[in-house]
Amino acid sequence: MNDQILPGPVETARIMEFLPHRYPFLLIDRVLSLEMEPERRLTALKNVTINEPFFQGHFPRNPVMPGVLMIEAMAQASGMLAHLAAETEGKEGELFYLVKVDRAKFNQVVVPGDQVLLDVIQKRIMRGMGQYECSASVEGRRVASCKILCAGRKE
User: Fold this and answer.
1) Range of the domain at 89
2) Which of 21, 30, 58, 142 is catalytic?
3) Is 58 marked active-site?
């Protein structure tokens, strides 16, 4: 049985309490769900608009969200999972830094107007390091995936 513990979505103002990112690098608009059982899992949303600053140069006549920013969005979702899980356990959260990206795969381009669902599963936490399996999808189709390793550090 899934144990969803969020009473409702986590909006941008609350996300900014947990993540240090700000415009134009805050790449999560809303956290939709958090589950602690049977595994720690978070689903977040990124609304992609033509107003994103990276579309001015990537690529102006055929705007495509850069793959590196897709990875960053998945890393931010991983950080949110770490913070919210720590909060539910009554622990003070750490700031998590991206250490390693493995098996990054891009299946489809992301364009203005897309709503990207970011799905993150915590695989393990060990000695201040968190390992996450991440995927991003648009309209039920996977657009990107990777495995991420993050290191926690007290603020």
Assistant:
1) 10-153
2) 58
3) yes
